Protein 1
Amino acid sequence: MDELLINWEQKAQEQQKANKQFLQKLQTKRGRGVEKLLPDMHDEAFSHVDCLKCANCCKTISPRFKMPDIKRISKYLGMKESAFIEKYLRMDEDGDYVVKFSPCPFLDADNYCSIYDARPGDCENYPYTDSFDFIKRPNITYLNSTICPAVFYVLEKLKKVTRL
């Protein structure tokens, strides 16, 4: 394991204010070309992070379930869309469908996803460490840095190579 990831949760908590400020400055400066670094940093982070050993995202937060996700997953499970929504989802304060409870009901005991082949788009793209969304949505990236070790890793690497 990379030394940066040792006690990453504690480090993320201790660096909350600094990380939030860094991300806001990064967004204000429109990334300053940082988005070009993200794919390689993403690959480097995931060479150290095994999602199946963590699954913290699935245990603590919910993806948004958009209608195409609901249609696809309902079909995958052989359920009517309305039954799927009633059984698994609720509407959050932003008007988005999310899972009723954490951990995600589709997370198996071995941290595999039982609907992986039909999973929501948010799950497929999470944690956004290889896309401009990482910079464009600083509040979400900040929150994700306290949930996902790969996000924390990329954020710390960016802080080392970026002058703001």
Protein 2
Amino acid sequence: MISFSIYDYILIILYFAGVIYIGFRTKIEDKSNIDYLVAGRAITLPAFVATLVSTFYGGILGIGEFTYRYGISSWVMNAFPYYFFITIFAFFLAKKIRKAELFTIADKLDQAYGKKVSVFGASLVFLLVTPAPYILMLGILVQVIFGLSLNASMLICLLISVIFLFKGGLKADVRVNIFEFILMFLGFGIILPFCYFKLGGIDYLSANLPESHTSLTGGTSTGYLFVWFFIGMWALVDPGFHQRCYAAKDGATAKKGVLISLIFWFIFDFMTTISGLYAYVHLKNLENPAMSYPLLANDILPAVAKGFFFVGMIATIMSTFHSLLFISAATLGKDIICRIRNIADEKNIYTKIGIAVTSVLSILIAILIPSVVQIWYTIGSLTIPSLLIGVISSYSDKLTINKTIIFSAMIVSFLFSFTSFIFGNIYSAGGIPVYFLNLEPMYPGLFAGILIYLSGLIFNKREKIY
């Protein structure tokens, strides 16, 4: 049982009030797509860094669970791969994305390959950015704090986000992100000194951590590690990255912003990993490792400090939740419905309808798949291979191929991953999926898609020769 003082409750309520206040104070000069969807393409470097860092780091309970189970290999699986691919994104994609002056990934796919590829790509993006894991985590925390039911807790967090997104669009989202960026670092900046002085330093951790938690693999298979490495390619096709780059003041802001964000992610990863190791040593045999951070805070933090830490955790998750909710809404309304119907959404009506529909779907998914890590792993494995082929090639004339071939590559890639996932779960042993040749679902999709794409690339070159 986690206990809170009246001061902790006040701090947490003030956070939610602050989010609503900042979100509602945001004024949109006009109601065009440019102002509502990409904040007038005027996001400055500090705002860009704050919104990108906070948006891309929402799975704090999942990170706690990973670190508790696998130790520092959590960093190997959930941090290092992203550093690698984010660096590639910064140097090779950020400026190109800003230069395109579009709104979404689907817009770029449409520009390069046409409507069919764009709608299919948008459907994959919609799956990829589902806010479900984040509304689930928010619901769990609010349930722990206020003793409400999980469904009621999720609904409250959802309504707070929806009301300011309806009014202020991306501009409101970014301004709230800046507030949340400060709080997420403040929260974990508070708990680490208490861990050090109450429990001990590096010597305490090294003396009490088992070998599995100091190993880079954490006792997992090489194949499992490689899947998480390739899931790091998520950064290359992450709609949040693309949207922020489209909204940046200029290409230089986008590139510098991504690289500076890397520094902040590294710092925050260090803070969360060390906190997770302290939780493992201090809290033995937890039934639910996803609660490792909240339970650690309950044991070692006094009143007020505990309130700030919980605010930091909520802000970390909330920042990602409302950002993904907005991206999902734009994807459904503008990129899928409007594109299929061949209409423009100049007044953002369909995006706002998308907010309502996405809200309902995210809660339903959270109820049906109540595991944060499983949602990440499943959706990433199924969608990233297919999206990667289309998105990366669309930003280079040399890599762009025939639209029929790229559509086939994306469809086949998704179907191979999906089929592998289904059959692996049908023929599971002891609840553990058994995949053909022990290949995780991502690999068949990636290999099949790349093979078809390369055949298209060769076909293009032959056409140019003859």
